[in-house]
């Protein structure tokens, strides 16, 4: 464990990023790989750390901001669909997923950029219940298979179909993202791809980062979430594009 002590800083930063908008895996998973873990073990260990960090951020946000929707059905969807995605992850090449996700990220970024008021005002939006269930199911399944951008896609889904407000959507996205992490983690444990001692140790740093991130979101409000979303779109699309050109994994 002494050899892995340097991973505390990446875990803390990953917790902060996950709490703000999502995408902490782009920080911690490469660090785990550079520490010598196998790709599947790095992914599983990251999920163990991430589930605690995201859950702690969700608790803070729900307490401080509140959740405008009953989330029971979305909790179940997140658990089941992400677990199924993790089970099927090995059968779907990342070379197929990367260009699709890059396009989706760019669409999200352009949409937010050209709609300056989207996500910043309570718009009295009609709750598109069926569409939201479908979107959460697909995004949860995607988190189990591949993962980058899950939190961001959930924020967009809840904003477009339910709240019209990035801040309240972030609260719901954190709750559901906790469940997608948990569902995928169960499958990684079943497949034997989790380094428990390391993951539990890094979870402490991830929780601390997530606590700071949750308070950053509360202090910055919807405008801050909007800026963070655009920045993460650029970072994720660039990272995935470089990985595609290099022929490597997204991590």
From TrEMBL:
<protein>
    <recommendedName>
        <fullName>Probable membrane transporter protein</fullName>
    </recommendedName>
</protein>
<feature type="transmembrane region" description="Helical">
    <location>
        <begin position="185"/>
        <end position="212"/>
    </location>
</feature>
<feature type="transmembrane region" description="Helical">
    <location>
        <begin position="45"/>
        <end position="62"/>
    </location>
</feature>
<feature type="transmembrane region" description="Helical">
    <location>
        <begin position="99"/>
        <end position="118"/>
    </location>
</feature>
<keyword id="KW-0472">Membrane</keyword>
<feature type="transmembrane region" description="Helical">
    <location>
        <begin position="74"/>
        <end position="93"/>
    </location>
</feature>
<keyword id="KW-1003">Cell membrane</keyword>
<dbReference type="Pfam" id="PF01925">
    <property type="entry name" value="TauE"/>
</dbReference>
<feature type="transmembrane region" description="Helical">
    <location>
        <begin position="224"/>
        <end position="242"/>
    </location>
</feature>
<comment type="similarity">
    <text>Belongs to the 4-toluene sulfonate uptake permease (TSUP) (TC 2.A.102) family.</text>
</comment>
<feature type="transmembrane region" description="Helical">
    <location>
        <begin position="130"/>
        <end position="147"/>
    </location>
</feature>
<keyword id="KW-1133">Transmembrane helix</keyword>
<dbReference type="InterPro" id="IPR002781">
    <property type="entry name" value="TM_pro_TauE-like"/>
</dbReference>
<keyword id="KW-0812">Transmembrane</keyword>
<dbReference type="InterPro" id="IPR052017">
    <property type="entry name" value="TSUP"/>
</dbReference>
<feature type="transmembrane region" description="Helical">
    <location>
        <begin position="7"/>
        <end position="33"/>
    </location>
</feature>
<keyword id="KW-0813">Transport</keyword>
């Amino acid at each position: 464990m002494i050899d892995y002590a340097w991973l505390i800083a990446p875990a803390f930063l990953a917790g902060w990023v996950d709490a703000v908008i999502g995408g902490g895996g782009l920080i911690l998973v490469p660090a785990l790989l550079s520490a010598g873990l196998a790709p599947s073990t790095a992914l599983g260990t990251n999920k163990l750390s991430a589930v605690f960090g995201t859950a702690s951020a969700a608790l803070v946000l729900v307490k401080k901001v509140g959740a405008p929707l009953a989330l029971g059905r979305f909790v179940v969807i997140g658990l089941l669909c992400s677990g199924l995605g993790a089970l099927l992850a090995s059968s779907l090449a990342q070379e197929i997923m990367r260009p699709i996700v890059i396009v989706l990220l760019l669409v999200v970024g352009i949409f937010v950029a050209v709609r300056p008021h989207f996500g910043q005002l309570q718009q009295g939006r009609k709750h598109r219940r069926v569409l939201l269930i479908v979107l959460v199911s697909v995004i949860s399944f995607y988190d189990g298979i591949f993962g980058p951008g899950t939190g961001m896609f959930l924020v967009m889904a809840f904003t477009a179909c339910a709240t019209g407000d990035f801040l309240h959507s972030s609260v719901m996205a954190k709750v559901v993202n906790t469940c997608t992490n948990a569902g995928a983690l169960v499958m990684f444990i079943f497949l034997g791809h989790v380094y428990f001692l390391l993951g539990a140790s890094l979870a402490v740093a991830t929780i601390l980062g997530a606590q700071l991130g949750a308070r950053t979101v509360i202090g910055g409000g919807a405008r801050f979430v909007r800026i963070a979303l655009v920045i993460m779109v650029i970072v994720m699309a660039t990272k995935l594009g470089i990985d595609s050109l290099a022929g490597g994994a997204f991590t």
